[in-house]
Amino acid sequence: SLTVLQALEDGLKRADADPSVKAVTICGENGKFSAGADIRGFSSPKRQGIALGPIISLIERSEKPVVAAIEGIALGGGLEVALGCHYRIAHVKAQMGLPEVTIGLLPGAEGTQRLPRLIGVPAALDIITTGRHIPATEALKLGLVDEIVEENTVEAAIRLAIKV
């Protein structure tokens, strides 16, 4: 939603400007990282001033480590946010993917560029063109996530952020 995008952008800018902040962890709520965009918004008039792609670029450009704490699902734009992070930790039961293709859309926030850079072209093409959900264990093998945990994902992400 526009509210979430604005909050993410504002939080990142505040963290980058605050010298007392050493790292950032991005997490979802209620056991889910993000299911991505609400497709009903695709047919509405273009939003002014805020879009997911530039926010992900802001994450990627941060001089402070940004860690995604993936619980539940990270789909579509949610996975694209995680791809912009410097590190990704996933709960063992998490699932990731770019399911937009199943309704005739391509990922629109540069996931088609970031995913191949991270896991290689063959694996990325499979994920991008099939829309299948990738379990955390497979994501770790592919290099999509840096670590999987069975405990509190946010706490594990904070520990990693402190370490790096």
Automatic annotation (TrEMBL):
InterPro entries: ClpP/crotonase-like_dom_sf (IPR029045), Enoyl-CoA_hyd/isom_CS (IPR018376), Enoyl-CoA_hydra/iso (IPR001753)
GO biological process, one term: fatty acid beta-oxidation
Keywords: Isomerase, Lyase, Multifunctional enzyme
Record Gene3D superfamilies: 2-enoyl-CoA Hydratase, Chain A, domain 1
Domain of life the protein comes from: Eukaryota
MF GO annotations: (3S)-3-hydroxyacyl-CoA dehydrogenase (NAD+) activity; delta(3)-delta(2)-enoyl-CoA isomerase activity; enoyl-CoA hydratase activity
Any one of the GO CC terms: peroxisome
Family: In the C-terminal section; belongs to the 3-hydroxyacyl-CoA dehydrogenase family.
The name this protein goes by in its record: Peroxisomal bifunctional enzyme
